[in-house]
Structure formats: structure tokens, C-alpha cells
Specification:
Elements: H1 12-15, H2 20-30, E1 62-67, E2 72-77, E3 87-93, H3 107-116, E4 120-125, H4 136-156, E5 158-168, H5 170-184, E6 193-197, H6 213-217, H7 226-236, H8 255-259, E7 264-269, H9 275-287, E8 292-297, H10 312-329
Parallel strand pairs: 3-4, 3-5, 5-6, 6-7, 7-8
Antiparallel strand pairs: 1-2, 2-4
Helix pairs in contact: 3-10, 4-5
């Protein structure tokens, strides 16, 4: 039988840097598949996970979906009784380049945060491009925050003074944007923490950008290659003039809202083109007087958080995130 053609080889530029466990999974499960950004667009692709290798969701107390005006949220509540005043709550946005994913995406991460940090998790099934481009996802994120803040105590048993936000990749983008929107809200919405995993913070970045050397250094990485990132960006935000708006690229948010941002834990992957964006975002927070911890996962490419079912580095990231969130809530 003829060997199937390798369509996504591991480039020599990164072969010696890439974790062995990722390389083994890639060569077995991904190398012979066509990159999604080179295929004709078909929304049916959303019925499969954006990233292979995820763990199964953990058992939690309850799981319930709630409709908002344009999207839904899935709410994970821990077993047992809440603390006096209500559960702390973590509003989470899944990854997928604002293009892929659905309400089931990264539920394993949501359940891990629910159990590890003893908090309610609200996972937002925000609208996606290309059908619903920017600013639809931002509008859904803002509505979810308002709903949790105003209705969460009654509907979910949460404490509205203990809200954290977070997300992965494009979801990290939306979470970061929310921290600035919360500061500008009337009245401001208090947030206690932001947990950003391999976030997109600057949609003007490119391989010719001196501000973020990782775009050039990791141009031949696996998974999130520059062409795929630009495909996601253009699906979501086809008008280039929008890319410099801070609710598209939160690194351009005003200094006053950076100074009012909550403390941050930011995970970046060494072999990710987005690595230096995440680091730069942490530096902007620190310059504004906000504590920001950065964890760099050595030898890792972009999608490891969602590969915690097969990669030890993915399990480690999920564990680290759970510890950081628990600490922020005072439950660790």
C-alpha cells in the first residue's frame, strides 16, 4: 500500500526545538492531513474539534446552557455548596481563530477550571466569522459579561465582585478586550483576574514585524503557521482598518484602562508565532502597574492547551492555569 503523502511536514527550522511528544503526535495524526486554511471553506468543519488530542471533560456539579440575545453560554457549577456570598466565576472564551469551534469546544478546560479553582465557569459560544465578522464576537463577549454581572447572582449563585475572565488564542483576545471594556463600563465592572492562554493581542502583527520577533523566528512552526493566522484574521476581520482598534487588538487599548486592568497570568508557547505578542501585552500591564505573570512553555507550539489528553506539556499548562485561577480566587 502506498504511503500517504505528507502534507504538513515538520520543518528543519524547528525540528530540533520541538518537544518529542508533540512531534510524535504530529507525525502520526496531523502530518498527512491538509491544512485547513488551504481547503475550501465549509462551516461543517466546526462539528469536529479545532484541535485533536484533548482530554475528556471532568464531572462537575451541574452543566446548563443559557441563551443570550445572539449566542448561548454553557455554565459549569462545582459540586457542593458555594462560599458565603456566592461562587467566584470565570468567564471563558474558547480558541479557534474566531472561525472554528462551538459550545462544546474546550469544555475539558472549563471543567478543569471549575474543579481546580472551585468556581462557576461560563463558557461563551460567541458568534464566528466569516458569517458573523468583527465586532460580533466582541459584542457577544460584552453581553456575556453584563449578564454575569447583573444576573449571575440570581441565576447562577455567583458573587459578582469575584469575576475573572480568560480564554485561549482568539478567546484570549476577547478576554483581554473585556478587561478594558469592564474598566470603561458605567459603572465599571470589577474584575479580579485575567487568564490568557496563547492570546492574540495585535492583529496588525506579521512576519515582517520587528516588534514581535516570534512571527519571523517561528515562521516555519507547526500548527499555527503565519498563513493560517492570516486566514483566521481575514475570516474574522476582513477590513484592515479595523485591526488597529483596541477592541480588535487589545494591545492598543488606552493607558488608563491598562492601569485599571486586573492582574494577569499569561501562558505563551516558545514555538508559537504569537509568543512575543503575549509577552508584550504582559509588559504593557506591568508598565501600568498591574501584576502580570508570564509562563513560557519550552519546545511547545500554539495548540498545547487543547491537547492535554495526549501531551504532558498540555496537562502541565492546564494544571498551572488551575493553580493561578485558584490563587486569584483565594481557593488554593
Amino acid at each position: 500500500m502506498a504511503q500517504s503523502k505528507i502534507l504538513q511536514p515538520i520543518h528543519p527550522d524547528i525540528a530540533n526545538k520541538l518537544l518529542d511528544e508533540y512531534a510524535a503526535f504530529h507525525n502520526t495524526h496531523l502530518a498527512h492531513t491538509a491544512p485547513i486554511h488551504e481547503l475550501p471553506w465549509d462551516p461543517a468543519i466546526r462539528s469536529t474539534p479545532p484541535v485533536l488530542g484533548g482530554s475528556e471533560p471532568l464531572k462537575v456539579g451541574t452543566v446548563k446552557d443559557y441563551p443570550l440575545s445572539k449566542c448561548s453560554v454553557r455554565v459549569f457549577t462545582p459540586e457542593g455548596d458555594p462560599l458565603a456570598g456566592g461562587w467566584p466565576v470565570f468567564i471563558f472564551f474558547h480558541g479557534g481563530g474566531w472561525t472554528l469551534g462551538n459550545i462544546d469546544t474546550e469544555n475539558a478546560f472549563s471543567t478543569n477550571m471549575c474543579n481546580r479553582a472551585r468556581c462557576v465557569v461560563v463558557s461563551v459560544d460567541y458568534r464566528l466569522g466569516p458569517e458573523n465578522p468583527y465586532p460580533a464576537a466582541v459584542e457577544d463577549a460584552a453581553e456575556a459579561l453584563q449578564w454575569v454581572y447583573t444576573q449571575g447572582k440570581t441565576e447562577l449563585g455567583i458573587n459578582p465582585s469575584r469575576i475573572a475572565v480568560g480564554g485561549s488564542s482568539s478567546g484570549g483576545n476577547l478576554a483581554a478586550i473585556l478587561t478594558h471594556k469592564a474598566a470603561l463600563a458605567e459603572p465599571p465592572i470589577p474584575l479580579v483576574f485575567q487568564l490568557l492562554v496563547v492570546p492574540v493581542v495585535d492583529n496588525t502583527a506579521s512576519t515582517t514585524d520587528d516588534r514581535y520577533p516570534s512571527w519571523q523566528e517561528n515562521a516555519n512552526t507547526v500548527s499555527l503557521v503565519p498563513a493560517k493566522m492570516l486566514w483566521f484574521r481575514n475570516n474574522y476581520s476582513p477590513n484592515k482598518e479595523d485591526w488597529t482598534k483596541w477592541d480588535n487588538s487589545p494591545i492598543f487599548a488606552p493607558q488608563e484602562t491598562f492601569s485599571k486592568s486586573p492582574p494577569a497570568w499569561i501562558a505563551v508557547a516558545e514555538l508559537d508565532i504569537l509568543r512575543d505578542e503575549g509577552i508584550a501585552y504582559a509588559e504593557k500591564l506591568r508598565d501600568a502597574g498591574v501584576p502580570a505573570e508570564v509562563k513560557v512553555y519550552k519546545g511547545a507550539p500554539h495548540p498545547i492547551m487543547a491537547m492535554d489528553g495526549v501531551l504532558e506539556v498540555g496537562k502541565q499548562l492546564v494544571s498551572d492555569a488551575g493553580i493561578a485561577l485558584a490563587r486569584a480566587f483565594g481557593s488554593h
